[in-house]
Design a protein that fits this description.
This protein is an alpha+beta fold. It contains six helices and 19 strands. α1 packs parallel to α5, α3 packs across α5 and α5 packs antiparallel against α6. The chain is flat.
Amino acid sequence: MDSHTRVTYRDNPNFFQRVSNSFMGIFIGFIVIIASFALLWYNEGRAVQTTRSLDEGLSKLISLKSTEVAIAENNGKLVYLTGPLKTDKPLSNAIYGVAVQAVKLRRSVEMYQWVEHEHKTEYNEGDKTRIETTYSYSKEWRSNMVSSGSFNNPSGHHNPNSMLVQSQMSIAENVQVGNFYLSQGLVSSIADFKKLQSVSAPSDSKIHLIDGVFYHSKNAMTPEVGDLKVSFDYAGVSGKVSANIGPPEYVSIIAKQQGLQLTSYETDAGDHLEILNIGQFTPQEIFDRQHSMNHVMTMGLRLLGWFLVFIGLSSMTSLIYTLVDWFPIVRELVSIGITLLNISVSISLSLTVIALAWIRYRPVFGVTILGMALIPFVLSRKRAQSMKRH
């Protein structure tokens, strides 16, 4: 592989510089903790609001008996319907002779380019750190332009400045289920893309078709820098049964009926319900899936919030580690102790914020979580009192 190594040196900070950096860490850690508290508070409020909105939606939902007729008394109400997708005309790309009756047609373009890879290895040499940086170069298919001008060694690794063909997304203007027209929000949920296997080569002799992929190349098996690879994907089959892509896809929708339009419904809690699932699902199944997604997101943000609290505390306590860094045995023991302490305190602080956010909505649940948050402090106090007695 084409590569070379560059060696540089960096001065290691002395004791006073490290202490100064630790004081800065205290300030940064405090800011991170405040931000994590805001995230945890927002997340709990969002989780409660989403749950209320979903429960409200299920209680007010009207299941349409027909997708062909819009009943006036349902205007402005939350409705449920299911049926096959329908569009006016096929989506096509004349250059490549591609046409498909679907909601979306995506053209993906990649260029064969030089790519720089960087690998660093650091060696501590007393008051300095030696840094060995190895740069290697390989030719790869990339969907984004790689600027060879920023390479450490651009000589012999030149990439073109632009692509002859760009990636593109085509979306049907009118998407329907029965006689109802889907909003842009509903259409955006149709994203189950499948590869389109093109079978007819374009008239341009410079474009070759191999395994359903178009190549702008003299020889697709041995590409050169600047060659292009073009492929197509589709989502939301919406026409008659086709030998290439199959029957039209069924979707299940929960949205507000406004005449023949299906749009976003605003709940009393303040959320917007505009749900489309690929396939045939009952209303209960759809709302159960939404509750599961809400739960996963809530837990994910809770973990992120806790991790930020832990990072903030670690930054704030880095000064202690710096002060004992000169004593290897003490340093390791202090490091383990501080880490365990930060984990315990970060969990308690995170649970406290979560509990305070829930007390307003579910007092019993909130108080229970608050009690769990206080357990480490209660246990540590009892242990301290026990040690005093002995």
